[in-house]
Amino acid sequence: MMQFFALAAAACAILAQWAIWFYAPVEASMGVVQKIFYTHLPMAWWSFVSFFVVFVASILYLARRRAKYARIAGAACEIGVLFSGLALATGMCWARPIWNVWWTWDPRLTTTLVMWFVYAAYLLLRASDVGGGRKDAVLAVLGVVAFLDVPLVFVSARYWRSIHPAVFGPQGGGMEPEMWRAMIANLVAMGFLWLAILLVRVRQLASGATLSALVRHGAIRD
């Protein structure tokens, strides 16, 4: 399954790159720099999916206390922090020639940065020795509470004064049909990549947990 998703991601990525550079038209006011959008938006949206998975897996862990849900939450959080961090970086590269600044305390950018710090703190806590046997439960509570910021990020450009464009605006974000198709192609490619990474990381965490258990029971030496 992992191999299938990886191959699908590679094939879709090739199609998506063709759509970006040869199919989608150059945006009239921003020019070629607007094509960062086709990478920026899928990373942002799949980071939201990642954090939703953290949210659901955390609830399942609190309800059933099964270690696999803690591993799924941890793996999804790692991907979410990576993707949201890259979304912030690509957004800054897009903002510099358009807004003439690398960063502005816009509601969308500010809530996204807060979200990134909260989930980065989740990973720091997960990597620490704090909490002992209760650490997974503490992380699960944090995974549930942290998700409160995700809807704020999504609606911030719609309900607050923001210079950040809203893709689902009254006129569809001002995008041509070819732009929409190129965006969807990149969204699908990123989705297959997300699934492949998630499955690999969950398997790695499961193998690590098994190895640690064998070391604790003296089956193998550390």
Secondary-structure topology with pairs:
Elements: H1 2-23, H2 37-64, H3 67-99, H4 107-127, H5 135-146, H6 149-159, H7 177-216
Helix pairs in contact: 1-7, 2-3, 2-5, 2-7, 3-4, 3-7, 4-5, 4-6
Keywords:
7 helices
Number of strands: 0
Task: Tally the helices.
Answer: 7
**Secondary-structure content class:** mainly alpha
Report the average pLDDT across residues: 87
**What does the main sheet amount to?**
none
Q: What is the general shape? A: globular
Q: What helical percentage do the residues reach?
A: over 70%
Please give the domain count: 1
How much beta, percentage-wise?
Answer: under 5%
Rg, rounded, reads 20 Å
Head-to-tail CA distance between termini? 32 Å
Order of helices and strands: HHHHHHH
Instruction: Give unreliable regions as ranges.
Output: none
